[in-house]
Amino acid sequence: MKGGKVLSTQKNTLASLTTSEAASVLKKVTHIYTDLDGTLFAPGGRLLAAHDGTPSVATAQALVALKQTGVEIILVTGRNRDQGSEILRLLNLNTFIGELGCVIQEGFGATAHVEYALGDWKDFVFAEGLAPGELPAGVTPAKLIEQSGVIKRLIEAFPGQLEPHNPYKATREVTLMLRGYVEREELERILNECSLPLSLLDNGVIHPQKHTLVDCPEIHIYHLMPRGTSKGSAVLADVARRGLLREQTLAIGDAIGDMEVGEHTGSFVLVNGGAIETVVEGYYAARGDDAEKLGTLFVTEGKTADGWAEFANALLAAKGVL
């Protein structure tokens, strides 16, 4: 991959971070929107480890160097706010976009500002006497999804192929998670019959240590969420709120959903996870004409945390820090 093109598609080309063209793009970046698992973190959600599990401070050092340079890092992930608050504290960062774009937190602790992004729910009336988009007192969006009965109907429709992604339900505020392997057409029919406008996002393959699934060729993690929400829409709103130029922004991740964030940033870095072609072609197949919005594409040689540190060092070098 050194020195240029690594993969051509009908729509775009992924390039190495070592080129002069990459340097000209990276030196303008002031804000990084980064995925966590499979991207910033090594397998198992580890910061102080290389991709192969050996101890490493490379990613931590890169985070410190970027902050010293004035580059702001915004976390964009499927993780919940309990996890996000502690990660912000540990990494000395300020902004967390969690539950795949549905929960936004600025700061942490008693002074944290938290809000929900609800997509199409902003026009939905949840109960008589409430304004459109107004939630019943003391009820989270995740609780409304649970009360709708859609989880039970989905599991009954796919016996042995779908189950709750335990033990995380108690900590979700907007989205609920399932795992398994399902056919989209039947799934969409059930969602369309639900009393709430919902969508189910496939967030990739996982390897749970314990489950009750049978006859699944692979196990995927699914997020049941308000229709019209996504990592990309949350980042678009954040970029606008900050008044940033597109060239100032970069997204980095390892999955199709992360590439969608790149539609709203000046460039996107795909962290090598060993299935680059699958992710890229899957993204173009899923997004259709929307894929035209994607900015400049780069790919790392290193996997997960190794790739993130590689990217960070390329950005620092472009700014003349290294």
What does it look like?
The protein is an alpha/beta fold and 322 residues long. 31% of the residues lie in helices and 22% in strands. Helix 1 (20-26) crosses helix 10 (304-318) and helix 5 runs antiparallel to helix 6.
N/C terminus separation:
22 Å
Strand content: 15-25%
The level of helicity is 25-40%
Mean pLDDT: 91
Number of strands: 14
User: What's the quaternary structure here?
Assistant: single chain
Radius of gyration: 20 Å
Shape: globular
Instruction: Enumerate the spans where pLDDT stays under 50 for 5 or more consecutive residues.
Output: 1-11
Spatial strand arrangement across the major sheet: 1-2-14-13-12-3-4-5-6-7
Instruction: Report the major sheet.
Output: 10 strands, mixed
Would you list the SSEs in sequence order as H and E?
EEHEHEHEEEHHEEHEEHEHEHEH
What is the number of helical segments per DSSP (H or I, 4+ residues)?
Answer: 10
Which structural class should the secondary elements be placed in?
alpha/beta
Short description:
Helix content is 31%, strand content 22%.
Write the SSE topology:
Blueprint (H helix, E strand, L loop, with lengths): L4 E4 L4 E4 L3 H7 L4 E4 L23 H12 L2 E5 L4 H11 L3 E4 L4 E4 L6 E4 L24 H7 L2 H8 L4 E3 L11 E5 L3 H9 L5 E8 L14 E7 L4 H12 L6 E5 L2 H6 L5 E6 L3 H12 L8 E8 H15 L4
Parallel strand pairs: 2-14, 3-4, 3-12, 4-5, 12-13, 13-14
Antiparallel strand pairs: 1-2, 5-6, 6-7, 8-9, 9-11, 10-11
